[in-house]
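CHAIN AND CONFORMATION:
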Amino acid sequence: MKLTNGRYTLSGDVDLLQLSEKYGCPLYVYDAEIIKRQYEKMIKAFDVPNLKINYACKALNNISILKYMKSLGAGLDTVSIQEVQIGLRAGFAPDDIIFTPNCVSLEEIIAAKNLGVRINIDNLSILEEFGHMFPDYPVCVRINPHILAGGNTKISVGHIDSKFGISFHQVPLIMRIAKANKMRIEGVHMHTGSDILDAEVFLQGAEILFDIADHFPELKYLDFGSGFKVPYKDDGIQTDISDLGKKISKRFKTYCKSRDRELTLMFEPGKYLVSEAGYFLVKTNVVKQTTSTVFVGVDSGLNHLIRPMFYDAYHKIVNLSKTSGKERIYTVVGYICETDTFGVNRKMHEVHDGDVLAFYNAGAYCYTMASNYNSRYRPAEVLVVDGKDYLIRQRETMEDLMKNQIELEIF
């Protein structure tokens, strides 16, 4: 988003304030050009013969977004049978979908297997049961590398006490299960967390994966997960994807050459591809002065954007309705009957009732984590492609809230 002649616009000179007038608030807006930019940056960063980028659709799972990812050449990383089904409906071939669940039932994994997608197993007991039932179906195994990494404890998933993955110390057990069931292990996977800056974290994990890969001669790919950090502030730090790409590519090619193996290098970015592409537009309901604080109360809350409350996440906020003149300090809050604070002591051009504010970095883990708390409707979603705006999800209505409820007539 850029500010030109007093207007905040997206790619193709699409005016965000006009979108709020056309579709109403609250509203999620995604810029396809930014998604494409991020995808191409990853493709260019890694210089290996075989590279596969699987979009982690839990970040933003609208089917139109999935179709756009497919048009770019991405595969799909899924964590539920429902995401698998949406991915297939979006047109992904089963072989381009990898199913990486955690703590789901064996029945759900079998359901994914019956749809023909790649299976990634992170539990020894499930691996043994699945291998006993379907020894000919190739699987990937998710390794816990015991690496503490990530922006905070809620998004750090590769440490020793994490519920994710099979400890790399238990590789002999994986080998024993695979041998006993005559299983084909086609991939080895790790994911250490989100908001990772240091390339050394990936390199450290890479050495663990390379050691494990030596034990599985039928291996086709190594999946390094993701966790790349994106900037949340104007001067925010981010993962140097180019530097990371050079270091990982060099080590990966060296390993493949030394073992005379042609493996595919996989990644599964979510936030990296869509975070910066998304903007969340809200309308100001009230500007409220207390003894020490000026609150801006908006027509949304933690029911639509929970990240600031759940992760202490920072989202830049600007006033679309007034882009020049006097600035004041505000605390931006929501309309939910809880403390739902979006931002404290934010400097913005003076805000009045009815002004439209825009939150940055609203593409990842925003709409997908939305709810109907307080019986509020979930917002509409709009995708901007080649300078045109398309409604890709309608705003919910009372009928949506009530359609699955059964109203008893016994009272």
The chain has twelve helices and 21 strands.
